[in-house]
Input
Amino acid sequence: MPDLILYIREDCHLCSDMVSSLNKLKVKLGFHFKSIDVDSNVVLKERYGNFVPVLHGEDDEEICHFYLDPKALDDYLVKIR
Output
């Protein structure tokens, strides 16, 4: 199962929405994801700023940002399988 990374920050409603959406799809589409708070790391904070949430694949490829794009997620999962 692919391991995806979701870059988020606390008190971000878009981040909460994407976490919720990913939780609903992870079993159906067969992936795991972990959330990383960009404010916990200076490099991540500089890299992403207010550009969160952003979902990355195992290869650090950006899948989508701000809102979950189910087609982009599906396309990524098909590509890596």
Summary: The mean pLDDT is 96. The domain at 3-80 is CATH 3.40.30.10 (Glutaredoxin). The first strand starts at residue 3 and ends at 8.
